[in-house]
Each structure stands twice: as C-alpha cells, then as structure tokens.
Amino acid sequence: MRRVLVVGCIVLVAGVCSARADAIDGQWCLGSSHFAINGPNIRTPGGNEIIGKYDRHGFEYVVPPNEEGAGTKIAMVLLNEETVRLTRGDSPPETWKRCKPVS
Question: Which residues span the domain enclosing 89?
Fold first, then answer.
C-alpha cells in the first residue's frame, strides 16, 4: 500500500510540473528578433499586436501589411519548453528559443 501511494505521488508531482511549462505562451528569440505570445495575442517581430490561431502547443498568424514578408503565413510548433520551430510559408524551418532575462 505504501509503495502504491509513493508511486502515485511521484506521478502526480511529475504531471503538475510538466503541465506548467508545456505551453507556447511567452517570449521567443532568434538573434536580435523576438516575439511574444499570450493566448491568441502575439506581439510580432515587427512590433505589431495582433490575434492569431492559438493552441497550447502551436500558433499561426499572417504577417501584417507593414512588416517584411507581409501576407506570409507563419506557423509555430512547440518542440519542448525551451524551443519553437517556426516556418514562414514554404521556407525552411527556424529554431527559436525562449528569451532569457538580461541581468
């Protein structure tokens, strides 16, 4: 009985820890470019605040008219808690990382 309780607690704690970090929301960087996702809202690399198609592990939007690549569909997939694969139209995928605070 004690063994079952211990295993159950370990599974519960592991599930809670992974659920918190398992979302695409947050700030993402590649070189000097960055974007920020908060639910269906995104601040694009060009600084526009727009709404896209959101789910916990992915995000899609169309580049606004006043940014480079206007009209291009952007698709993002969360690979792990620190990495997003971003695809611009038919271009090869890019790997973006969570932005780190500068101290």
Answer: 24-98
Q: Which two tokens stand for residue 20?
A: 């918190």
Tell me the per-residue pLDDT of 17-53, one tens digit each, with 9 for 90 and over.
434 458 999 999 999 999 999 999 999 999 999 999 9
Residue 66 counted as domain residue: yes
Is residue 17 domain-resident? no
How many angstroms separate the Cα of 54 from the Cα of each of 7, 10, 15, 25?
35, 31, 23, 9
Record the pTM. 0.76
- Beta strand pairing status for 41-43 and 53-55? unpaired
Three-state SS string over 9-49 comes to: HHHHHHHHHHHHHCCCCEEEEECCEEEEEECCEEECCCCCE
Instruction: Summarize pLDDT for 71-95 with one digit per residue, the tens.
Output: 999 999 999 999 999 999 999 999 9
